Amino acid sequence: MPDVSSLRAALLDWYDAHARSLPWRAPPGSGMRTDPYRVWLSEVMLQQTTVPHAAPYFERFTARWPTVSDLAAVEDSDLMAAWAGLGYYARARNLLACARAVANEHGGVFPDSEAALLALPGVGAYTAAAVAAIAFDRPANVVDGNVERVMSRLFAVQTPLPAARPELKRLAALFVSDERPGDWPQALMDLGSGVCRPKSPSCELCPLAFGCEGLKTGEPARYPLKVKKAERPHRLGHAFVLRDGEGRIGLVRRPDKGLLGGMVGLPTSDWSATPDFMAPVDADWVEVGAVEHVFTHFSLTLTVHVGTGGGDFLWTEAEDALASLPTVFRKALERGLAGQ
Ligand code: SF4
User: Fold this and answer.
1) Among 171, 176, 206, 207, which is most exposed with the fewest C-beta within 10 angstroms?
2) Can you list the alpha helix ranges (DSSP code H) found in 85-204?
3) pTM above 0.90, yes or no
4) How confident is the model at residue 261 (pLDDT cuts 50, 70, 90)?
């Protein structure tokens, strides 16, 4: 297990030298606290967009509504218009509800504990922790996707997401401390966005490289591990394009239960790894190729055979059949007609 206190010290040193200058941020080590209104507003905006996109909105909002009470007094429609381009209007509505709760129930002053922040409308665990830490210098475990990624790499966590979330949160909590509690999450955020990036981490620039287990594996970008989607099984089958003396197509209604249940289709064999030929009638069947189709739970290759004959079928003009059959049968019919 990497040495947590050395890693913490190394990242804070790096942050002192490389912190991004952001409109809502107090410079590291300045001892200045950021206005909780500005921290909260920036965090809500950043939940759905990037720093370069959010920054001009943030500047406009804070110029127009310098305090949370100013924001609370705005007409809903004005806020929605100002929010346009940031997406997720539900979040804008929550923003207003929260501003009004702070203005009306807290005298325009944001509460300074994580628990009280969490009780505000629309404020989730992440935002409450971020505001408590960054605005009030409270030790808080601020965990978003960036922090999860850094933790999963730092400790080479073998559990895939999403099951790894509680473990990643526990690991992030190891770094929470009374020392510079507000700078710590911001340092991690900067590392996650600028160095330990999702696809191409710049490990050669990373202040944590000396203790990073993910880097030791040689493939840090593999982390966080994700559950592999189960591979779809593949099945085979035969489809039969039977035509009568008038060129009509012999169709069948499928059993009510099962895939495409109750629908009209071409006669087929079973669909399995080793299907039986099972032609619907005796005829001089000619194989004319195969079609592929992907269902939700398996993929299918249907070998198409054409023949001429009669019998108890739903005799349908080819044009009508093409217009009405489910896709898998339409593909097979097209193949059959082209192959004749
Ligand atoms: S060494 Fe690489 S993988 Fe490890 S934390 Fe730094 S950037 Fe991320």
Assistant:
1) 176
2) 89-105, 114-118, 125-136, 145-154, 165-173, 183-194
3) no
4) confident
